[in-house]
Design a protein that fits this description.
The complex is a heterodimer of chains A (332) and B (329). Chain A is an all-alpha fold and 332 residues long. Chain A has one domain: Orthogonal Bundle (ABC transporter involved in vitamin B12 uptake, BtuC), CATH 1.10.3470. Chain A contains 15 helices and four strands. A two-stranded antiparallel sheet of chain A has the order 1-4. Chain A has a two-stranded antiparallel sheet with strand order 2-3. In chain A, a hairpin with a 2-residue loop joins strand 2 and strand 3. The longest helix of chain A has 34 residues. Chain A starts with a helix and ends with a helix. By secondary structure, chain B is mostly helical. In chain B, a hairpin with a 2-residue loop joins strand 1 and strand 2. Chain B has a two-stranded antiparallel sheet. The chains are: A mainly alpha (332), B mainly alpha (329). At the A-B interface, helix 6, helix 7, helix 13 and helix 15 of A face helix 5, helix 12 and helix 14 of B.
Chain lengths: 332, 329
């Protein structure tokens, strides 16, 4: 990770294989723009940026959880729970929008705390713990309004302005996500936090014996994941104008994992990292947008996503193994 | 600890668990007069059979120390394949085998990816799951397939009765019995457990762990595919979403069973699946809407995990990590 800073920035570095994903995105964008007039329209571009903004915020926590070698499959359900609670409190309990959002947000964070406690302190496998909390969260979201979406009719434009606002014709949402990711990259690459993050992913035993409070760190990452998912849930609610108990028809989870593993192929080969995830999210959003505009059936999206995830995982695993082999040569 | 003592502890646990089950049955029959009628018990057992099939496969994968997220989607594909073949006027038996074959193929691919290529299990199975889910949509674009269902005889899979026992129950019990013999009364069972408990020791003891991982994933796909086909038969149509609802119940049964018996076992899973099915059936009778079921199972699972955490997971920490332990190094 220090390579980035030690050598300074040179143009030739842009053509190194680790930036392949950026070029892929660029090529995809140019190709799709040439072939489809609907794709290159300014409105569609705004739509892509807005959607990638929300998706990026949603999967930030997942990136780091995968980097420490844990898993979270509950983040999409946390977003759905927050969305439904917001809508329910505003429409059924008559609570002002601001308070409802805070209450829903806290409920989402609570799921994160439960996840973190079960996984970090009680040593329950992260998959089974997050399946349990995720399904429970989704069930609560469905119980609130019998599984139907609940439209919000409110004079409050609190979040609405944020979601649909633009600065210099770029959605505020996208700029916010970008800012969060640049800040996270700083945390990840230049602070002790980032050092601990990748150390945990590499060798948990060594971290524990170095006296780092491993459980506490993992606990906080699960809270972070739920927090980001809750924010995304509120944004989705504002974007759709209603609370939904199944965001994107249950596709968000797979999309999140694919984005993270796409990103893990670049920048830091073999490790999930925030900049890679950000690019991965945009690539997936562009791809799904293009497939939708072409009018192809839904299953093409699933097939591509699944295939991409498999290819990425294979490459990332191969990179990871190669990195470990190099390490052995250096030590020995 | 000698062998005898372990057996007696397990027997005692089983008796306690059965008593809990009886207590719940009594509570529900007290709360609702319809609970203990023959008709309701048949419904309960049929429903329990399907979810127990899914849980059986999940148990095998958990025993070898892995997870499979793809079986709900793979089983949906298998169910859709069978329904599609039946809709094409193909005899019911080859149709069922075609569905099972497709399911097992995906399970086999999962096993090869995880056991031989050493890819991280959960993320890989999310990928294969997405692919099989995509294939499941191809047959009908996501619509229900109901052509020839009534005439083909597939409904017998759900409706047939032998000696007053419904066929799904017979099928489920016999599969559980075979699995019990395989996992708890044979050399291979020891190898399955060794693969999950301590991979290094397993390798040095001459266990071919690759084959056991592939076998576990294939068994998981096979039983869940059969479960999906049975579920389609009971619904009277092929649904593209048939398997999806079984992810939580299957893992809940497996982990509830392993929480009670301190390791994933066939009898633990069976009892837990019966327990959960009884609970859901009772609540349904008391007019609790269907979308409460995930909430109930989720809370039971969280409770069981919380109560049992220290006992079950201390030696199996490897499960939590998405990486494989480096056994060969």
């Amino acid at each position: 990770m220090s390579e980035w800073h030690s050598k300074g920035f040179r143009l030739s570095r842009l053509f190194q294989p680790q930036f392949g994903l950026i070029w892929l995105l660029f090529a995809m964008y140019v190709l799709f723009s040439i072939t489809s007039s609907a794709f290159r329209s300014p409105d569609n571009l705004l739509e892509i940026l807005r959607a990638s903004g929300i998706n990026a915020i949603l999967v930030l926590g997942l990136t780091w959880i995968l980097a420490v070698g844990e898993l979270d499959v509950s983040f999409a359900d946390v977003a759905a729970l927050v969305s439904m609670i917001t809508a329910y409190l505003v429409m059924k309990s008559g609570i002002p929008m601001g308070l409802a959002i805070i209450a829903a947000f806290l409920a989402g964070v609570l799921i994160g705390i439960i996840n973190g406690f079960m996984i970090a302190y009680m040593k329950i496998p992260s998959l089974i713990a997050t399946i349990a909390t995720g399904f429970t969260a989704k069930a609560i979201a469905k119980i609130l309004y019998e599984g139907k979406p609940l439209a919000i009719v409110s004079s409050s434009k609190l979040v609405y302005n944020f979601v649909f606002g633009e600065i210099l014709e770029i959605p505020v949402l996208f700029l916010t996500a970008l800012a969060i990711y640049i800040f996270s990259r700083f945390l990840q690459d230049q602070t002790k936090m980032g050092q601990h993050l990748y150390a945990l992913g590499e060798n948990r035993q060594a971290v524990r014996e170095a006296g780092i409070k491993e459980a506490k760190i993992i606990f906080y990452y699960f809270i972070l994941s739920a927090t980001m998912a809750s924010i995304a849930g509120i944004l989705v609610t504002a974007q759709l104008g209603s609370g939904v108990s199944e965001i994107g028809g249950g596709t968000l989870m797979i999309q999140g994992f694919t984005a993270v593993f796409l990103g893990a192929m670049v920048i830091k080969a073999g490790k999930p990292n925030v900049i890679g995830t950000f690019i991965g999210v945009i690539i997936l959003t562009v791809l799904v947008n293009w497939i939708t505009l072409l009018g192809w059936p839904t299953f093409i999206v699933w097939l591509t996503r699944g295939a991409m995830l498999l290819v990425c995982v294979t490459i990332v695993t191969a990179l990871g193994y190669r990195r470990r082999a190099w390490g052995k040569i250096q030590v020995g | 600890m000698n062998g005898k003592k372990i057996v007696s502890t397990e027997t005692r646990t089983m008796v306690v668990f059965l008593l809990l089950l009886v207590f719940i049955i009594m509570a529900f029959s007290f709360l609702h007069g319809q609970f203990l009628t023959g008709r309701n018990i048949t419904t309960l057992l049929k429903h329990a059979s399907v979810s127990a099939m899914f849980a059986l496969g999940a148990t095998f994968v958990v025993v070898v120390g892995h997870f499979d997220i793809s079986f709900p989607m793979v089983s949906s594909l298998a169910g859709m394949t069978t329904s599609y073949f039946i809709a094409q006027d193909i005899h019911v038996i080859p149709s069922i085998f075609a569905g099972l074959g497709v399911g097992i193929l995906f399970g086999f691919l999962n096993g090869v990816a995880v056991g031989i290529m050493k890819l991280p299990d959960i993320v890989t199975t999310i990928g294969t799951g997405a692919i099989s889910w995509g294939f499941a949509w191809i047959y009908s674009g996501g619509a229900y397939i109901w052509e020839n269902v009534l005439t083909s005889g597939i409904l017998e899979l759900n409706d047939a009765v032998f000696f007053r026992v419904p066929f799904p129950v017979i099928l489920m019990v016999s599969l559980y019995f075979i699995s019990f013999l395989l996992l708890h009364r044979s050399r291979h069972g020891r190898c399955f457990y060794a693969t999950g408990d301590n991979r290094v020791v397993a390798i040095f003891s001459g266990v071919k762990i690759k084959y056991y991982i592939v076998a576990a994933f294939a068994i998981c796909a096979a039983t869940s595919s059969l479960g999906a086909i049975m579920s389609n038969a009971s619904q009277g149509s092929g649904s593209v979403r048939v398997g999806l609802v079984f992810l939580l119940p299957a893992y809940a049964a497996t982990f509830l069973g392993s929480a009670v018996f301190r390791k994933p076992t066939i009898y633990g899973t069976l009892l837990a699946a019966l327990f959960l099915a009884t609970l859901l059936n009772g609540f349904t009778l008391m007019a609790v809407p269907y979308y409460y079921s995930d909430f109930i199972i989720g809370m039971v699972l969280i409770l069981a995990l919380t109560l049992s955490t220290d006992i079950v997971f201390r030696k199996r920490k490897v499960l939590g990590s998405s990486r494989l332990p480096e056994a060969s190094g």
